[in-house]
Amino acid sequence: MEQIICTVDVVLLTLQDDSLKVALLKRTHAPYQGLLALPGGYIHQGEDSDARDAALRVLRDKANIHAPYLEQLATFTGQARDPRGWSISVSYYALVSAQVIEAAAHPDVHLVDVDRYQQLPFDHQHILNTAVQRLRSKSQYSSLPCYLAGDTFTLPQLQRVYEVLMGEAINKVSFRRKMTEMDMLEVAGGKPEAHGAHRPAQLYQLKPAFRQHLRLLERGF
Predict the structure, then answer these.
(1) Residue 3 vs residues 58, 69, 83, 123: alpha-carbon distances, Å
(2) Per the omega criterion (within 30 degrees of 0), is the bond before 31 cis?
């Protein structure tokens, strides 16, 4: 009886130069050896307590990344998605700031614009598109974009992250009103960041209660 292949795949997203990018790795083994693909791997029965644990291990081992936010995306299955046979992929998406990617300094990680079509192996293009759609949809009414802003950020920096993901400008007053309504930010302990010729802009960070869990709005922006 043919054994079903069971893997995890992770869509690792970051924001760099006002562009949403995905981290891809060059495959070292067949099938599709040498092609860029999403970080992924087999679930290790004796090592991983669950699929999420496997996804965290894949990010750590293959990209030297510890993601502050990891969410299960979907399960992708079928005979046609993997030439080795019938397979199941439990897929996740992770959000990190560009500073986290830079600090990891992994030589095999390639950051690629999500809007640039890639000939990704397996069904990785479909998985990527699904993750990007999920992120952009949730950005309308949640704290999700904060995980792309870094540990600390100014309100204008955070507003820009929301604008890039939503693809439209946001009124400054409306944005600040929504941030107050969500009650998820606190003043960071570091020094304020210089802001042109004006007084330094205040640095903020997510409150501890929201660093692992989303904050949702009743109404979107």
Answers:
(1) 22, 32, 13, 20
(2) yes
| Whole-structure pTM value | 0.91
Read off the pLDDT of residues 69-110 as tens digits, 9 standing for 90 and up: 999 999 999 999 999 999 999 999 999 999 999 999 889 899
Range of the domain at 32: 5-138
Last residue within a domain, chosen from 86, 103, 138: 138
Q: Which residues contact 127 (CB under 8 A, 6 or more apart)?
A: 9, 11, 38, 73, 74, 76, 89, 91
Q: State the total domains in the chain.
A: 2
Q: How far apart are CA 31 and CA 183, in angstroms?
A: 48
Query: Which string of b and e fits 143-169 if b means at least 16 CB within 10 Å?
Result: bbbbbbbbebbbbeebbbbbbbbbeee
Q: pLDDT tens digit string along 122-178?
A: 999 999 999 999 999 999 889 999 999 999 999 999 999 999 999 999 999 999 999
Same domain, 49 and 113: yes
Q: Per the domain annotation, does 216 fall within a domain?
A: no
- In a domain? residue 221: no
